[in-house]
Amino acid sequence: MLCTCGQPNLISNAIKYSKKGTVIEVKCEILGNTARVSIQDQSIGIRPNDIEKLFERYYRVDEINAKHISGFGIGLYLSAEIIQRHDGRIWVESEIGKGSTFYFSLPLT
What we know:
This protein is an alpha+beta fold and 109 residues long. It has three helices and four strands; from the N terminus they run αββααββ. 22% of the residues are buried.
């Protein structure tokens, strides 16, 4: 079930926004009655003012280093909608130049 709730999009984004040959780490942890998945990359990172809008429909980061990356700004929005409709949560932690970690959690019951 976890793969149908946003993980493929988060992994493909990690690949798209990271330099070739860098490590992308995917983890799944059981925390009480919740499964938490994290996808950590070594990408260009996301500015704090972009993080608050990242899961909005059609929002694309306006970053010079990301201009060559194609997309319509709906992948993270759809992932968030699916996860939230399964009573889950999605969020990101990021630092410019050091990468990002996207998380989502889903109830197990």
